[in-house]
Design a protein that fits this description.
Largest sheet: 4 strands, mixed
Length: 286
């Protein structure tokens, strides 16, 4: 991906130096399970996990120690890369929203180390990147990029860009009122039925990531050989079916919340080829 010497977003909030206050309490079993599952996915709904963490006091520090984090040259390069991708999402969504006759409100992106507090509550880095609708911010520990490569077998800078674009996709859903409608519709449904709506929401964020790639390539010609394959591989590697089989040897479709590998690849490709919000209507069928 051609990203060097391009605009870096002004909406990056760097909290890495302040993010090392670590908990001294041990996490309870259910919290460990939730955080582990959260680390397996992109776009985890933070309200579910954060509510449990805050209400039970899990993860709260009885004593803290100041972070000794010192970013390496590689970490600084990753931070710059992240800022460039965020800038590209800004350019894309500002233009797309303008075409729709509405104004795009750019999100902030928070870089943190180990753990962070958001308007949605406290989060551990193990949860992976997430979007908080309460403050319109995307949160990411840059260490996740290494996890993406080593644990999910999804290397490459365009795979990393896909992660950012997916989370920004959740911001777009919030601005358009889609996320709020889904949350409202999930009330009173069974867990399996509510999960189906979550899948459609996540697949739409994948489609919006593809939409971003479509417009950015058209405007800036950023793609290099193998880039699209990196994003498709990342989408495939974090499908519910693949992750569950890797974790326990089998998959339970009724518990899926993000979609299968095939579905995630399909909707990223749909966004990349179509390039429109209307073409990303996963709620009409997926």
């Amino acid at each position: 991906m051609k990203w060097r010497n391009r605009r870096v977003s002004n909406n990056v909030e760097d909290r890495r130096a302040a993010g090392g206050a670590r908990a001294t309490k041990k996490l309870g079993g259910i919290s460990v399970l939730l955080i582990t599952l959260g680390a397996m996915y992109f776009g985890v709904d933070p309200k579910i996990i954060f509510g449990l963490l805050d209400n039970t006091g899990v993860g709260q520090s009885t004593s803290t120690q100041q972070s000794s984090y010192r970013p390496s040259a590689e970490q600084q390069q990753l931070a710059e890369f992240t800022g460039v991708v965020l800038a590209d999402t800004e350019d894309t969504w500002n233009a797309v929203f303008q075409q729709q006759g509405i104004t795009y409100q750019e999100p902030k992106l928070v870089l943190f180390t180990d753990r962070v507090k958001s308007a949605c509550g406290h989060a551990e880095a193990a949860m992976g990147p997430f979007y908080c609708p309460g403050d319109h911010k995307v949160y990411i520990d840059l260490g996740f990029y290494q996890q993406l490569k080593n644990q999910h077998n999804a290397p490459g800078d365009f795979a990393q860009a896909y992660v950012i674009a997916h989370e920004v996709g959740h911001h777009v859903q919030t601005l358009l009122g889609i996320s709020q409608e889904v949350t409202k519709a999930q009330q009173g449904l069974s867990k399996a039925q509510a999960n189906q709506l979550s899948i459609k929401l996540e697949l739409q964020a994948d489609c919006f990531a593809g939409l971003w790639a479509h417009h950015t390539q058209k405007a800036k010609h950023i793609l290099e050989q193998g880039d699209v394959e990196e994003a498709l591989n990342a989408a495939s590697q974090i499908g519910d079916d693949r992750l569950q089989k890797q974790a326990r040897g089998y998959a339970t479709p009724e518990s899926f919340t993000h979609g299968t590998s095939q579905q995630r690849v399909k909707w990223f490709k749909q966004g990349f080829s179509d390039g429109s919000i209307q073409g990303c209507n996963t709620f009409q069928g997926y």
